[in-house]
Structure formats: structure tokens, C-alpha cells
Design a protein that fits this description.
- By secondary structure, the protein is of the alpha/beta class.
- It has one domain: D-tyrosyl-tRNA(Tyr) deacylase (D-tyrosyl-trna(Tyr) Deacylase, Chain: A, 3-Layer(bba) Sandwich), CATH 3.50.80.
- The chain is built from 2 helices and 8 strands; from the N terminus they run βββαβββαββ.
- The strands form 2 sheets. Strands 1, 2, 3, 6, 7 and 8 form a 6-stranded mixed sheet that branches. A two-stranded antiparallel ribbon has the order 4-5.
- The N and C termini lie close together (about 5 Å).
Length: about 140
């Protein structure tokens, strides 16, 4: 499982021109689910993300977690995080989990983040989405389990 975190001032996702999810200060997370991923990977990443200290404190140091700042998350499914570009110029996506399993783990991951008390909104799994990200810093971190 791969999670690309972007610390944001705000973010939103639209499907067919309609906003379906948004967040204020916190993270926009692009989540890729790979073959063989289970709830254990989702649990690990959710715990890590809830405690990760990348928000600035009063001394202007990255020392606060999303829980400390009472931040929000916009979670977007992103199978292209498993693109294999090692052969030729057209990516292969065979390393990604099958859609039904990826959607199940995507929803599980969202619920796990919510269990920590973090407000989470999502995009629409499998839909063509337009994601607006106001990256703060910019701070972008890749986590993988």
C-alpha cells in the first residue's frame, strides 16, 4: 500500500464538475492499493499518518501531527501509484490490486483514519476525478508498507 501525503491548506475533488469531497488544513492523500495488501498495511499507514509530525508549531518547526492541529483529510484512490514504467513507454498497472479488493481496502483505510478522530472525505473510487490541491510548503511525503 502506498500513500502520497500532501500537507495542504485546502483540497477538493470533483467528479463531472461537481465537488464530491474537500478538506481544509490537513492532508490530501493519494492512496494506491497493491496486490497482496491487507488490513495490516492499512492499519500501519493509518497509525503512522495520524501521528506523523509535519505541521508547524509556534517555533515554526514541523513538530505537530494532524491530530494536534485538528486537521482534515481528503483521501483519493490512485491506482497509478503502482505504475510500472520499467519496460517501454506505456505504464503497466499489473502491480495494483484488483478493483474490488482495492475499493474494499480504500474504504477500510478511510474508516481506520476516522477511528483516530480525523475527519475524512473521499473521492469516488474508479471515477475520473479532478483534484485541486493547495500544497502547503510544499510538503509531500511518500509512505509505503
Amino acid at each position: 500500500m502506498r500513500a502520497l501525503l500532501q500537507r495542504v491548506n485546502k483540497g477538493s475533488v470533483a467528479v463531472e464538475g461537481e465537488i464530491v469531497g474537500s478538506c481544509n488544513e490537513g492532508y490530501v492523500i493519494l492512496l494506491g492499493v497493491g496486490q497482496g495488501d491487507t488490513e495490516a498495511e492499512a492499519d500501519f499507514l493509518a497509525k503512522k499518518i495520524s501521528a506523523l509530525r509535519v505541521f508547524k508549531d509556534d517555533a515554526d518547526k514541523m513538530n505537530l501531527s494532524i491530530l494536534d492541529i485538528k486537521g482534515e483529510i481528503l483521501l483519493i484512490s490512485q491506482f497509478t501509484l503502482y505504475a510500472d514504467c520499467s519496460h517501454g513507454n506505456r505504464p503497466s498497472f499489473g502491480l495494483g490490486a484488483p478493483p474490488a479488493e482495492a475499493d474494499r481496502l480504500y474504504q477500510y483505510f478511510a474508516d481506520k483514519l476516522r477511528s483516530y478522530g480525523i475527519p475524512v472525505q473521499t473521492g469516488v473510487f474508479g471515477a475520473h476525478m479532478q483534484v485541486e490541491i493547495h500544497n502547503d510548503g510544499p510538503v509531500t511525503i511518500m509512505l509505503e508498507k
